[in-house]
Amino acid sequence: MNFLNLPKIELHCHLDGSVRPETIIEIARKENINIPSFNIDIIREQVTAPLECESLNEYLKRFALPNVVMQSKESLRRVTFELMEDCAKENVKYIEIRFSPVLHTKKGLTVEEVIESVLLGIKDGEEKYDIKGNLILGCMRTMSINKAFEIVEAGRKFLGKGVVAIDLCSSEEAGFCEKFYQPIKLAKEYGYRVTIHAGETGIGENVLEAVEFLGAERIGHGVYIKDCKEAYEVVKNKGIVLEMCPTSNVQTKAVNSFSSHPIYDFYKDGIKVTINTDNRTVSSINITKECDILAEEFSLSYEDYKKIYLNSIEAAFTDLETKEKLKTYI
Fold first, then answer.
1. Domain at 3-327: CATH code
2. Burial state string for 159-189 with b = 16 or more CB within 10 A and e = fewer than 16
3. Among this protein's residues, is 200 annotated catalytic?
4. Residue 16 labelled as part of a binding site
């Protein structure tokens, strides 16, 4: 099956994990930013994680360099447009880009300016290609509660103008949900949709808490519901959608191999799964390759793919008109 020609939807893609290595060098030259090298091979190696990472934390180190060059309005707008372009070229028709805006305020930009710059990049992509984009704002679990409130407040004015949801991301510890209850509660009151990174690194109970305590409608990864019966049942019975990223999960050691990834077992048991890249550059992946891997490992059929595509439409944090249009592609 030629997946390249099929329409695609990407619900879990980090902006700073999807920056072209060439762009890092070009922005560094243009803005006089000090980076370790201007050799493309060296930069590519520094921002791409090996398949054999030791852990999620080792994987996350690959984000440091891209963030260094994502500190101006121009650079943020550019890398966002280029992500839209890369997606459009493999027939992604809809994408929800996520990032943590506070990471891009080191040179004086406000959180609002950061969000606005990324939204402009999304709009640039929409104007040039047949693709629609929305934005998910991420609160880093390693940051203070006050920072989470700051992101929620700053993004409020952009709700209905491209910003659609709130997320908690970064390193995963047990019981993180309680700490972030108040900012997520406020976000929901403002009208944000909720997706939470949980169950990525061996703690299935976090998924249960994300759904029942924080009101998560979708879960980023959720691999470890396989080891927590209660979380598994809640996800299945409530129709919680899992944003699954097979290549990333192998790299971070969430699973030992592609063949042991639970995505297909979940799908066959009626859990709503979606196929995503997580980080196109850091994982050296795109949706087409992810689908090729799943087809090879689990004999993913066209009917399987179509059902997952329709699951993705249903789960997307977008308007009914966009959803109806997305259905016409398949």
1. 3.20.20.140
2. eeebbbbbbbbbebeeebbeebeebbebbbe
3. yes
4. yes
